[in-house]
Hints:
By secondary structure, this protein is of the alpha/beta class. About 40% of the residues lie in helices and about 15% in strands.
Amino acid sequence: MTVREFDGLAAVVTGAASGIGAETARLLAERGARVACLDRVAAPDLPSFVADLADDAAVRTAVDRIADRFGGLDIVVNNAGIGAVGTVADNDDAEWHRVLDVNVVGAVRVTRAALPHLRRSRHAAVVNTCSVAAHVGLPDRALYSASKGALQALTLAMAADHVRDGIRVCCVNPGTVDGPWVRRLVAGAADPDATLTALRARQPNGRLVTASEVATAIAYLASPLAGATTGTVLAVDGGMQHLRLPPASLSPVVTPDPE
Length: 259
């Protein structure tokens, strides 16, 4: 039996044309929400509003149109983001500005436009899609990690700013997700099979995270059933952030039971 805890609530999901965003939009709708997708391209099957998150005027117009359509707005999922590969020496200033403008300031623009509507909701929630890269040093991810570290810090600051407005703000920190960006990364590698094997191996559970697993975590944080949850950073990473396992070729270290 499907739980429909979002009945009567209106949500906007950015970056909902594919991957985590598409799964999140589908799940929220399945659980009763009226969902609008906000992306640079239209999403199939659900109401779509096209806007570039780098364009503040376009974002404000789209968010207001969504709120007008639904008669309000209760949930914002800031999922849209772009990847970046390289050390600090490998991306020029323009690329740093581009990635930060989407991954961090894009979430600011959408949330800022939604605030007047969220303040009128009894079940207001904002969920940001962050990354394990906010906590774990990964090679060749300097710019991407900086953007996600900033987004996590922003999440906590927003949670403090708006808790007395009745608006909950949390984020999810996925590990490596089997999605469009990772597939493009693997396909473009010199040895795609070895690259995919390495990505799987760096997660303690030995596999990539699925988009549906991240969507389920987002739905939990956005749910009115989680009304006491705010300022929470929820890892969905197969243990990547906290677990330290020996190589699979080695026997596990045996420790005595406590007395």
